[in-house]
């Protein structure tokens, strides 16, 4: 009876939230959990569940897996708004729940916040748990990467039968302390030659003996083919591996994985990792490579993840950034340009962004000096922190457009000189920007 009341009440709230507020992906789940703490085990019953967690790339990887399953003719649901805590996940299942449906042969592709994995696996025993990577992120909430790793382990330990599909280039995930079956994916070739370990890289020391890692090559940050010269710990054997990168452009990447060529319709080095993660998961589910290829080459951007908008004839690309590793990868994507661009940066310090913004000093903004940037538009709650950081990085101060109001932000984006504007934006700033663009009629949906 509690489950019935929770489901019906939550469905009513979902409809009202969508109609009145154009969103509301967490509150209905919060209400359902208040009425029935174990509601998740009821609404997720019968699904083949795939959980995606990790610091960066969760939303894009979730979208890739979901789209591949659809391309292969499978029935699947997902929490595509990115509401990845237990309330949002419950709401997603309830929105798809039917009292007469047994969910047979249905997949649920669910993005999960790292700290909330243990709350989900308390009630769901997924087919697969995949972990993308572990970077420093929201230090006020997570602390260092070992804290995040331990939170994920808590969730894994509650579901010992789940297959783990892990990033083998992530040194914290080798020899993982779990009894689950494990397969690894990663790179057998560097993305660029002669990459050295940055002083601000994350997991630089052996997880067992604390000796600095040695590398045959680094892909980015601390990821790569690592080994410890002291204790012998080394990268595990990869089941799925990138053997060649044949193209890396602003339009996408072409790579060879296990002797098969794939085109990834999303630019950036980090999206190659997202794609091989999605590929590995779906191959483990028995999906044919033809469906995977067809889906990846037509993969559309999820909101805020290289989403491309047309605003008054100008191209505006929104890229979510939330930590140094992700921001540096976004900058590397910008460096693929050989034409003038505009750059907008929005920095917030709300709880969902991380209240400590000192992390921007670990971002390599100095690289941007090699680009031809016309206007540099700066906005957000902490816009002056960002302006100071960019000034110290020697970007041209005379190009700065400081926007203290929404109207200033929109007007500067519209009037910017170059045809393409990249907007690098933290999470709550992205949501604010989307609501603003929706109110002005530039986009049809907030979510």
From TrEMBL:
<feature type="domain" description="Lipid II isoglutaminyl synthase (glutamine-hydrolyzing) subunit MurT C-terminal">
    <location>
        <begin position="320"/>
        <end position="430"/>
    </location>
</feature>
<dbReference type="GO" id="GO:0008360">
    <property type="term" value="P:regulation of cell shape"/>
</dbReference>
<dbReference type="GO" id="GO:0009252">
    <property type="term" value="P:peptidoglycan biosynthetic process"/>
</dbReference>
<dbReference type="GO" id="GO:0005524">
    <property type="term" value="F:ATP binding"/>
</dbReference>
<protein>
    <recommendedName>
        <fullName>Lipid II isoglutaminyl synthase (glutamine-hydrolyzing) subunit MurT</fullName>
        <ecNumber>6.3.5.13</ecNumber>
    </recommendedName>
</protein>
<dbReference type="InterPro" id="IPR043703">
    <property type="entry name" value="Lipid_II_synth_MurT"/>
</dbReference>
<feature type="binding site">
    <location>
        <position position="231"/>
    </location>
    <ligand>
        <name>Zn(2+)</name>
    </ligand>
</feature>
<keyword id="KW-0862">Zinc</keyword>
<feature type="binding site">
    <location>
        <position position="206"/>
    </location>
    <ligand>
        <name>Zn(2+)</name>
    </ligand>
</feature>
<dbReference type="GO" id="GO:0140282">
    <property type="term" value="F:carbon-nitrogen ligase activity on lipid II"/>
</dbReference>
<dbReference type="Pfam" id="PF08353">
    <property type="entry name" value="MurT_C"/>
</dbReference>
<comment type="similarity">
    <text>Belongs to the MurCDEF family. MurT subfamily.</text>
</comment>
<feature type="active site">
    <location>
        <position position="356"/>
    </location>
</feature>
<dbReference type="GO" id="GO:0008270">
    <property type="term" value="F:zinc ion binding"/>
</dbReference>
<keyword id="KW-0479">Metal-binding</keyword>
<keyword id="KW-0067">ATP-binding</keyword>
<feature type="binding site">
    <location>
        <position position="228"/>
    </location>
    <ligand>
        <name>Zn(2+)</name>
    </ligand>
</feature>
<keyword id="KW-0961">Cell wall biogenesis/degradation</keyword>
<dbReference type="InterPro" id="IPR013564">
    <property type="entry name" value="MurT_C"/>
</dbReference>
<keyword id="KW-0547">Nucleotide-binding</keyword>
<feature type="domain" description="Mur ligase central">
    <location>
        <begin position="52"/>
        <end position="230"/>
    </location>
</feature>
<dbReference type="Pfam" id="PF08245">
    <property type="entry name" value="Mur_ligase_M"/>
</dbReference>
<dbReference type="InterPro" id="IPR036565">
    <property type="entry name" value="Mur-like_cat_sf"/>
</dbReference>
<feature type="binding site">
    <location>
        <position position="209"/>
    </location>
    <ligand>
        <name>Zn(2+)</name>
    </ligand>
</feature>
<comment type="function">
    <text>The lipid II isoglutaminyl synthase complex catalyzes the formation of alpha-D-isoglutamine in the cell wall lipid II stem peptide. The MurT subunit catalyzes the ATP-dependent amidation of D-glutamate residue of lipid II, converting it to an isoglutamine residue.</text>
</comment>
<keyword id="KW-0436">Ligase</keyword>
<comment type="subunit">
    <text>Forms a heterodimer with GatD.</text>
</comment>
<keyword id="KW-0133">Cell shape</keyword>
<dbReference type="InterPro" id="IPR013221">
    <property type="entry name" value="Mur_ligase_cen"/>
</dbReference>
<dbReference type="GO" id="GO:0004326">
    <property type="term" value="F:tetrahydrofolylpolyglutamate synthase activity"/>
</dbReference>
<dbReference type="GO" id="GO:0071555">
    <property type="term" value="P:cell wall organization"/>
</dbReference>
<comment type="pathway">
    <text>Cell wall biogenesis; peptidoglycan biosynthesis.</text>
</comment>
<dbReference type="InterPro" id="IPR018109">
    <property type="entry name" value="Folylpolyglutamate_synth_CS"/>
</dbReference>
<keyword id="KW-0573">Peptidoglycan synthesis</keyword>
């Amino acid at each position: 009876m509690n489950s019935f009341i929770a489901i019906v009440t939550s469905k009513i709230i979902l409809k009202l939230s969508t109609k009145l507020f154009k969103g509301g992906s967490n509150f209905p789940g919060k209400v359902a959990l208040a009425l029935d703490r174990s509601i998740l085990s009821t609404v997720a019953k019968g699904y083949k569940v795939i959980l995606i967690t990790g610091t960066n790339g969760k939303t894009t990887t979730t979208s890739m897996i979901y789209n591949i399953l659809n391309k292969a003719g499978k029935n699947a649901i997902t929490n595509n708004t990115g509401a990845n805590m237990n309330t949002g996940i419950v709401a997603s299942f309830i929105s798809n729940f039917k009292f007469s449906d047994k969910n047979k042969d249905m997949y649920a592709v669910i993005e999960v916040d790292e700290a909330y994995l243990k709350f989900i696996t308390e009630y769901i025993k997924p087919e697969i748990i995949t972990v993308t990577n572990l970077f420093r992120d929201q230090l006020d909430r997570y602390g260092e990467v070992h804290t995040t790793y331990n939170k994920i382990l808590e969730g894994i330990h509650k579901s010992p039968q789940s297959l783990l599909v892990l990033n083998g280039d992530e040194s914290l995930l080798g020899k993982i302390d779990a009894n689950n079956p494990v397969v690894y994916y990663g790179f057998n070739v560097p993305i660029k030659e002669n990459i050295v370990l940055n002083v601000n890289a994350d997991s630089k020391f052996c997880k067992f003996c604390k000796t600095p890692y040695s590398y045959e090559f680094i892909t980015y940050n601390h990821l790569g083919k690592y080994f410890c010269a002291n204790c012998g710990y080394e990268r595990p054997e990869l089941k799925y591996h990138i053997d060649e990168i044949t193209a890396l452009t602003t339009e996408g990447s072409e790579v060879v994985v296990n002797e098969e060529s794939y085109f990834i319709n999303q630019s950036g080095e980090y999206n190659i990792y997202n794609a091989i993660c999605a590929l590995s998961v779906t191959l483990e589910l028995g999906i044919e490579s033809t469906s995977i290829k067809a889906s990846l080459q037509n993969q559309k951007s999820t909101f805020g993840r290289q989403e491309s908008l047309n605003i008054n004839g100008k191209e505006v690309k929104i890229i979510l950034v939330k930590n140094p590793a992700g921001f540096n990868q976004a900058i590397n994507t910008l460096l693929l340009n050989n034409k003038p661009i505009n750059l907008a940066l929005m920095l917030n310090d709300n709880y969902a962004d991380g209240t400590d913004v000192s992390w921007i000093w670990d971002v390599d903004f100095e690289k941007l000096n090699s680009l031809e940037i016309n206007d540099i538009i700066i906005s957000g709650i902490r816009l002056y922190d960002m302006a100071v950081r960019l000034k110290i990085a020697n970007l041209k101060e005379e190009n700065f457009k400081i926007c203290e109001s929404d109207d200033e932000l929109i007007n500067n984006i519209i009037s910017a000189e170059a045809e393409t504007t990249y907007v690098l934006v933290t999470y709550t700033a992205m949501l604010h920007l989307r609501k603003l663009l929706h109110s002005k009629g530039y986009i049809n949906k907030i979510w």
